[in-house]
Amino acid sequence: MLSGTNTLSKFLLAIKRSYSDMDVARTPWPANASQIEAYFSDIVATTIFDKFKKDPVKCKKALSALTLFTLYASLYHTEIVGLKVGKIFEGYPANQKDILNFAFFVFNVIESKTQDDIFCLNGSHKVLSRKEVKEIEKTQEWTEAKDQKIKKEIANLIISLESSVWALYFDSFSCAGKEIHGPYQVAGKNIILVRNYFNLNPKEIWSVKGKYRSIRMRLKYSKKAGIKLDYANHIKSAKPLLNELISFSISVDGKRVAALSEIRSLSRYFSHLAKKQAERINALPSLEIIKKGAEIYYYRYKKFFEYYGEDWHPPQQVYDRINGLKLRWWKYYQNNENRKESPSHYVKLFDPRNDFIG
Amino acid sequence: MVKIVKSKIILKGIGTSAGEVEGRVKVVKDLNCSSCDFQEGNILVAKITNPAMIMIISKAAAIVTDIGGITSHPAIVARELGIPCVVGTEKATKVLKDKMKIRVDGEKGVVYKI
Q: How many domains does chain B have?
């Protein structure tokens, strides 16, 4: 059971480290997180918190249905900041002790889905057990990344997938459309990194029908690559990754893909998807981007709401608020684009023990 | 004796993907830019990258941006592609002009005019 000041200190240290490498307020496409989430984060947070208060056991089961990285991201953005905002602006009855208890509750749900330090302070996100990693190394069919041509094509596939999930899920891409975990130590001073793009065709939020649903990449790199993951699911590496790739195992909708021509065709497909999707979003008026952002945000919680037998879509209250406030928060946070906050600003923001909301 | 030519540093930022490369600048300001007359080997200069730029990113010899941190999109894609990248220069799109010849040092986070 995770509890106590030490756990909270680790969480805040993880936040500090993650945010020291980001330029958060200025991630301008299609909007920074605050430009969208300011309209409804308290509504999501208080909805979940009400369920927690009513029946923690049921709430734990419902939260467990979410992807690990949704839990990570939603913990600080939604549950902590959303509850503070609800308390300050809407008079929601949650005190600091309640918010702190709820943070620990979510820490423990996250812990049940991981194999190691949940705050990734050692630079890794371990989802698989040692036994599972050994099994993958032994049983997967690995293809050697024997020359620059194939290495470059794998890199192209990765950047086209990264761009696609960003275009499909906005700022929620790091949890709604992909999960990255590892690095896992394996024989020969190598490591395995898993990239799982598990929902590349979210037809519930975009009307366009995609050709592929999921792509799972298992990539074996030399340890020299110095790959580290942080709490916010970002990859950092000491060296450019392309040259350190040793072998790979890729499956598309469960079917193995290894030939250069197949990988190239996938890269082209996803580059095209990212480009078209970005153009579609760039053509939307700002208010529609906010509404679409709300829909994507709630979509992250689809399985949570379905566990309760409820509709996952944003409630009318969210749309009423967006229509009422119009571009107020959009402009406010856009105008703050040049305000570069220090990591300690975010530590204070995500600390459940205060009422600071920025 | 080899003469060492000292180049002038014209921009400083955060080096997010190691390596040094020389090339000609192409400043991309259009959010919807998917080709923008971008030639293979050009150095992509933008406020920040976005998914619409994916086709040109894969042709770039290096990336230089006004904003972003080491976990930003340009930094991540550059590390994957093994090309130098400097982010957070604050003024790359103002200082650098199309066809200007520059050298990007993704380790030190600097851009030289050559």
A: 1
